[in-house]
């Protein structure tokens, strides 16, 4: 299993937008994304921080139903 990369909130948002998610709202520094087509996928909440924690990024990957390798390819 590859290591989880260290990325910022903006980089994570760009990656998930490539997967079909779109920004629906923002409250403070937290941005909410929903999938455009598949409404059964969980919505994602990504903080707009300089660096996301490993645990948070792992949860976002799990909720989006992708692998770490797929995320690395999107970067």
TrEMBL record:
Any one GO molecular function term: hydrolase activity
Keywords: Endonuclease, Hydrolase, Nuclease, RNA-binding, Stress response, Toxin-antitoxin system
Official protein name in the record: Addiction module toxin, HicA family
Family classification: Belongs to the HicA mRNA interferase family.
SUPFAM superfamilies given in the database record: YcfA/nrd intein domain (SSF54786)
């Amino acid at each position: 299993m590859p290591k989880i990369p260290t990325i910022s909130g903006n980089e994570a948002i760009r990656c998930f937008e490539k997967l079909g998610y779109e920004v629906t709202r923002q409250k403070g520094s937290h941005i909410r994304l929903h999938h455009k087509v598949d409404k059964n996928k969980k919505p994602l909440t990504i903080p707009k921080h300089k660096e996301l924690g490993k645990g948070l990024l792992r949860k976002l990957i799990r909720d989006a139903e992708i692998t770490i390798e797929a995320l690395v390819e999107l970067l």
